[in-house]
Input
Amino acid sequence: MDTTIGGLIDDALGARSWVSTGSAFKEKARKAAVLGLNEFALKCPELLVPRTVTAVLLPEVRSDSEDVNATLQATSDPWVMEFRNLTGGSLSPVTGWRPIVTGEWDGVLHLEIIDPASQKRRRQSLEWWHVLSGVPIATDHWYVSLDRPWRPGGLTDTLMPFRIYQPEVFFPVGVIGPYDIGRVFDDDHGLVGQVSAVDAIRDDLRDYNNEASGSPDSIWPGRRFDLPGIKTAPVISTPHVAGWIGPVEQGTFRFVATVVWGVTDDEWGDNPGGVREPVWESPPSPVSVAFSHAASPGVTLRITFTSPDELMNFADPLALRLGRTGRRVRLYVARDAIVAAATPNAYQRVDADGVFYLLTEVDAETTLPLGTFDWSGVDVPDYGRRLVRSPGYTAWHIYPMPDQRYEIDFPVAGLPTEFISDNDAVPIAADGAMVFYYYLLAHLAERDGTDLAASAAYRVQAANLLNELRSRPRSGTAVVKARGYKDNSRGGLKYKSALMTTG
Output
């Protein structure tokens, strides 16, 4: 059975005796396929093609630890805190503890700060950074911007103890979540199992001042998080009469922009093109007007986009928080046509497939002119990183809090949020193809004269097939190995013997 989206749609249209053609009709069938896949994922996620995602957990940082010995103080900007030593002086630029300012902490780590009135105040970080400033003596400064301003009247607060910690894990965009036991990559071969949110609350599996720490063994879903995106399409202009260099060949292009925040661990986060994957990415902006080099040969393209820093009021040039939202802008480009042999030594054997691929990632407050990117073909699109329309994220809580850096391998189920090419493969197991096929037929029937009776009949066939698949004996036998189970009740982990009878 052809499990590309084009093959499945053709088979389904034949079953419905549809003979319509054209781009509008094709788009309608493609949307039916997306809805069918989402329904498939909700009802039988175990039949999606699995992959493994490695979650990296970071240990807490306490201001009173021997290897830290630091404090926090407020600044003239209520959205910014500065790290100082125990006496209020600057941190050393070469020895001792200093925050990580390369992006891995942005948004991921939270802070507990004890103000001068001994009240503990919680904040999420936006961005961590370092500057060297001061006249006549140069002084190093380490800062963090906050998701909420500091307390009113507290801009002179100094010598405040703090705790930095990671309360949640987020999986990449498009990942539904872990569907099996996670494995800790360490000498103890630890396991991390899912518990329900209700059980986690009942058993008080929460982090409070790091009362319980060690190798995490439990994970459960928490809040939903959506990173707001850009609502205005990028604008394409040609400030330079000529200047296209390549090696990307001239052609017809369209652009979209997304907002990203945070960067994943450098051990696991690089795209094939070398740009680090973000922790969160927004849905894309509207698509720009297409630009064609056939009408304006050889020109450099200037892409102008909305600034997330200005949207969040972090663009005042006199404020310490200028540009420190942690947000960056990603530009994606789709090629609709190629102007052959227009640029010496440019790449000619490329697809004009209309698919959006990652072009670059920029900071809206550091590009010149502000909020622009000039493309002369030097930056090559990353054909290993397609645009994924973010449906939002689920925060997953962990327990206990990590006492060191951990890498945990989770089997997860993921799906694309859109199909572009007929050759796109549907990410389902081979024995689940017919189940998806009936869900596709159900959604096509709803668009075919609102044939609800046929739609219901197709869902019945899908359910029957799914029941047959789920009733098959596991691994060819009905024997389940007897094993112990773990009780994650408060006060320490308890192991009890349990005998699971054969099914």
About this structure: Residues 488-503 have pLDDT under 50 and may be disordered.
